[in-house]
Amino acid sequence: MRFVYLMVFGFVGLTALYLMISVYSRSVRREKLEKHWDELHPDSEPDERSTYIEAGMTKYERGFRRKLIVLVYVVPVIAVALTLYLNN
């Protein structure tokens, strides 16, 4: 029964960690895009800026870096499974 508790609370904890990392990563990427646009086009219109940022965020959503965040689930599960296997 304790293993079930470990799985449930572990999943909840990993989900919270995943969401925090995902939100942080998105905000860092958006900030980089904003700074890059401001450096290249200091006197541009806001519509062009928002279009550039949204296109960059769409590219980020499909990118490899965002998919790496899923390792938040994989690595701890493998570590716990390996620990349980080696101890038993």
What does this structure look like?
With about 90 residues, this protein is mainly alpha-helical. The chain has one domain. The chain has helices at about 1-40, 45-60, 65-70, 70-85. Helix 1 (about 1-40) runs antiparallel to helix 2 (about 45-60). The longest helix has about 40 residues, at about 1-40. The two termini are about 15 Å apart. The mean pLDDT is about 90.
Concise overview:
By secondary structure, the protein is an all-alpha fold. The protein has 4 helices and no strands.
Task: Break the fold down into its secondary structure elements and pairings.
Elements (H helix, E strand, L loop, with lengths): L1 H39 L5 H16 L2 H5 L2 H17 L1
Q: Structural class of the helix and strand makeup? A: mainly alpha
Helical percent range? over 70%
Termini separation (Å)?
17 Å
- Counted beta strands: 0
Unreliable runs: none
Multimeric status of the protein: single chain
| Rg from alpha-carbon coordinates | 19 Å
Structurally, the number of domains stands at 1
Report the biggest beta sheet as strand number plus sense, adding barrel if it closes: none
Mean pLDDT: 92
Beta-strand content: under 5%
The number of distinct helices, counting runs of at least 4 residues, comes to 4
Q: How would you describe the shape?
A: rod-shaped
N-to-C order of helices and strands: HHHH
